[in-house]
Structure formats: structure tokens, C-alpha cells
TrEMBL record:
Organism field: Hapsidospora chrysogenum (strain ATCC 11550 / CBS 779.69 / DSM 880 / IAM 14645 / JCM 23072 / IMI 49137)
Molecular function GO terms recorded: glutathione transferase activity
Keyword entries, A-Z: Transferase
GO cellular component: cytoplasm
SUPFAM superfamilies, alphabetized: GST C-terminal domain-like, Thioredoxin-like
Residues annotated to bind glutathione: 85, 127-130, 145-146
Transferase is among the record's keywords: yes
Site-annotated residues for Lowers pKa of active site Cys: 257, 302
Alphabetical list of Pfam families matching this protein: GST_C_2, GST_N_2
Domain of life according to the entry: Eukaryota
Protein's recorded name: Glutathione S-transferase omega-like protein
UniProt cross-references to InterPro entries, sorted A to Z: Glutathione-S-Trfase_C-like, Glutathione-S-Trfase_C_sf, Glutathione_S-Trfase, Glutathione_S-Trfase_N, GST_Omega-like_C, GST_Omega/GSH, Thioredoxin-like_sf
Amino acid sequence: MASKITQWVNVTDKTGEFKRQVSSFRDWISNEPGAKYPPEKGRYHLYVSYACPWAHRTLIARKLKGLEDIISFSAVHWHLAEGGWRFPTKGEDVPGENAVPDPIEGHEDFTHLRHVYFESEPEYSARFTVPVLYDKKTKRIVSNESSEILRMIGTGVFDDLVDEKYRGLNLYPQDLQSQIEENHTWMYDLINNGVYKSGFATTAEAYERNVKSLFEALDRVEQELAKPKAGPYYFGKALTEVDIRLYVTLIRFDPVYVQHFKCNLRDIRSGYPNIHLWLRNLYWREPAFKDTTQFEHIKWHYTRSHTNINPLSITPLGPLPDVLPLDEEVPAVKTALSKV
């Protein structure tokens, strides 16, 4: 484990490689008889950060599945310091819906997310990560593994509690499960985690190796999205976990990862036309994506929390706008299209 919360690579690791922590809480909400955590309205709470792509996954799924009145949520402050994620204080002006002090009864004195962790496990000694799926009844963390929270929310576990119009959406449909898992494997390692392995690398060798692999993976996504399809999503007509897990990384790519993590071989808006169109379709045409994307949190968190990368905490103004409209392109792309 690194010696400081904001020290992302262990100082004793001479490879310079960023290695992501394995999640500690791995229980499941289940509608099986006798389940430890059954689906119930109002029982569960999500702690998230708008800045964090891993937490963003769960907010998108929550909205897509119509769970706003079933699972409550709150957002931590965008700044990550030595104490870990903290809750906004009462009266503090923090942008974003539900960026508030810990709203759970009995947590009135909780100032940081770490207090929620210690409530569940007093000897907890790893990172205090988001998202956290919390059970108000037992006062315990159910899960802090984003992929598993996404799976719980995005399938049919809560379908008996939501309006009928939301029950038909399954983000992990049976006929696509093998393809979803195959894509998750390389996308997670090379793209979702690849931007971090590039940005947090402490040696040139580690950085160059990972950034090259990242862009090779983006090339692969671009080729896949260039194929004729009957719908706007990664697999055509079916909106799946793959779209969500890719989106949360790629919506941050141009505003943050290009400059802050030195992922600058190309940007999305001028270098990947098919990814750019897919990304904007999700942002502008699916409210669950746009409404949960909070660019102030995203930009401020990375550029003002990662002082080892950006010691002066100056947040770049561009690119402008954060997301281009569907009918707009950057000048380089306009010029290229005019010549076709």
C-alpha cells in the first residue's frame, strides 16, 4: 500500500506501475429467498463522487433503471486530500445534485467517507473508494466494487419495485453476456484502467508502454463502431454495460485525460469520429448519461487533487465546449469531411 492516500504508486515499486486496489466489500443484493440483502425500497444508499468514473457507472444505471425513489444517493466533495473523500459541510456551495453532508441517520458526525468504512470494519486499512453501496438497515457496506454494483442495479433485481417501463431494460442481456465479458476484459485493463496506468506512471517506460496500449485499444473500439449497425450503441440496438463502462472513461478523455494524464497521442473529438459520434449520442440523447455527468467535479478533482501531477492546481479552461453538439465538429474534422 502507498504511504499516502494521494500517492498512487508505491514508492518501493521500481516498475513505476499503478496497480489498482482490489475491492474489499463484495456482498450482493439478491431476490433469492432468505437473501442477506433483499431488494427493498429506501433501504440502500449510494455514496458516489461525480468525479470518479467508477462511481459514475452506478449513477447512470440507477437512472436508467428508474431507481431514483428506490435507492438514495449522495455525492462527496470533489476534492480528494490526505483524509480521503470528504462530505461537503452544511451550507458549503458545491455544484451537483445531492453534494451534501452525509445524509444517513446516525452519521451526523461523519465528516469523511472513511467513517462509513470504519463503521463496517473498524480495522479497515485500505483506500476509502467510491462507489459505496450502503445498507441503512444493518448499517453496513454491501459492496464497494463498481462493476458488481452496476450488475446488481442494471439487471432485474429491483424490477418488482420499479415502474413497468423500466423492467424491459437489462444491461447484461443473456444473449450478449459472452461478448460483454470478452470486451470488459480488455477494455478494463487497457482503457478504463489504462488512462490511470498512463497518468500515474512514475517512470517513462511505464508511461510509454501503457499509453501506447491505451491508444491501440481505442483504435480497436473505433474499428468496432465503424461497422454497420442497426442502432447507436456498441452492440447496435442493445444498450449494455459496455456502453456505460466505456462512456465514463471517454467522456473524461478530452477534458482531463489528454492533458492531465498525458494521453495525448490523439483526442476523441478530432481523432476518433465513430467514438465521438457514439459518445455524443449517449450524452445528448440519453438523459441518464448527461444528467449524471458533472464536469466541474471532474475537472476540479483531477487537476486540484493530484498535486503530484499538477502541483499548482491550475485547471485548464479547455477544451471548449466540454461536449460538442451532435451537429458540430472541430475545424479539422469539418475540413476532412468537406473533402470526402
